Amino acid sequence: MLINYIGAFIVMILGLYIMMSKKNLIKIVIGMSLVDSGLNLLLVSVGFRPGGTAPIFITDLKPGAFFVDPVPQALTLTSIVIGACVSALALSLIIKIQEKYGTIDADKVRRLRG
Amino acid sequence: MSALFNTNFLNTLIIIGIVVSAIFTVIIDDILPCVIASSVVGTFIALEFLLLRAPDVAIAEGAVGAILTPFIFVITLKKVNEKEGKG
Amino acid sequence: MKKFLAWFSLSILLAFSVYVSFVMAALPSTYNGISNIIVKNTIERTGAINAVTAIVFDFRGYDTLGESFVLFTAVSGSAVILRNYKKNSVTPLEKDLKNSQKNKSNLEIIKEIDKKRDSIIERDSIIVSTANLVLPISLSLGAYVILHGHLSPGGGFQGGVLIAGAVAIVFLAYGMDRVSKVFNAERIKVYESVGALSFLLLGTLGVVYGYNFFKNVIYNQGKPGMLYSSGTIFWMNFAVGYKVLAGIGFLLITMIGTLNAEEKE
């Protein structure tokens, strides 16, 4: 539906703004997680049909009931898990960066030091 | 017809909630309230998945995006802010 | 100047995405294509009631295999990156006790260590009593969601994440020492590999029977609607749930183990 698409795009653009302009490394990872959530919302909203029901074959289905599209939901499950994995790996890197450089400011860790 | 109107109204309300929580994530400066705001975004998105007739995805997003991800953010935050005194 | 440039480019992106969403809303529905065929053939070919689980484990099994690889890589990479932190298992307190009482049994020594350590740190009583109540409920709910993946909303991933929350609950209520005593990190690493390998071997069952990879060849054992039905989907649910709970549990134990021990004087 229309407002779902606009909402998902707004969340993605806000996440992108956080990634572009904030200085703290942890905030950048929060922005990446926001982009992932907005993208999953967009994927599931594509497969919605107004008036449909959940794609489970229960025994007392009303005659004339139709399902929403189950394929985007299956792909969104994979995408959610991958988003969480990438966030966890990025946070492990941040722990190591803080130990080595002493700070997690994105401007100060920019130069590679030997 | 009125049932259709009710569904669209609740849907619009939840989308407005998602966008407002995401705006809070941008505006706030400290990190811990920012992590909690991202958890609120995840919860609202899980609620929206229920309205879009997707219960599997709702359970997955609620468990991962609203519980697991903020937990590892808080562990990282606690580790980063530790003082070097007590080795 | 930089902030103005960021706002300007993002507002152009926003205008473009509003136009794209208007065009997307006018497209015909995506249902009349592959989804029509899948929904019509779900019960005959797989015997599963839940169409999304049938798609994830049977019709598009390769995507699940790739996602297992990504989860395994993330957990292993995290364990390698955070490797050099000493686990907080042996401290000078324990060394003194062990040297002075050599002829007591191991159980009594551990009990004395527990008593000494519990008297140092005071635990919040609300969190402890809530965790005592919530932990068995969440474990059984997670096991139910894993096993009934083909009958009701749920499946391998969701149940695995719910059970892996047990590590988080134990850490919040009892502190880091109890986590390293209750969960044995080496064994959990082995369990994750066992889960991943069994998922792969269930995929090659189709090749053994003479068909292609990931084909559901034992789908007509049991009627649709019973607990043991839908062939390899039942076993794959269990294998993936096992893998996910071991993997995410190991990731949480690794990240918790980097925190320094807390001690109140």
UniProtKB/TrEMBL annotation, chain A:
Membrane spanning stretches: 6-21, 74-95
InterPro entries xref list: CPA3_antiporter_subunitC (IPR050601), NUOK/Mnh_C1-like (IPR039428)
Presence of the UniProt keyword Amino-acid biosynthesis in the record: no
Its membrane topology: Multi-pass membrane protein
Location, primary (coarse class): membrane
Subcellular location: Cell membrane
Keyword terms of this UniProt record: Cell membrane, Membrane, Transmembrane, Transmembrane helix
GO cellular component term, pick one: plasma membrane
Entry's family note: Belongs to the CPA3 antiporters (TC 2.A.63) subunit C family.
This protein's name: Na(+)/H(+) antiporter subunit C1
Protein's organism: Clostridium liquoris
Lineage of source species: Bacteria, Bacillati, Bacillota, Clostridia, Eubacteriales
UniProtKB/TrEMBL annotation, chain B:
Transmembrane segments: 12-28, 35-52, 58-77
The keyword Plastid is assigned to this record: no
Pfam families attached to this UniProt entry: MbhD
Gene Ontology CC, one term: plasma membrane
Cellular localisation: Cell membrane
Domain of life: Bacteria
Keyword entries, A-Z: Cell membrane, Membrane, Transmembrane, Transmembrane helix
Protein name as annotated: MrpA C-terminal/MbhD domain-containing protein
Gene source species: Clostridium liquoris
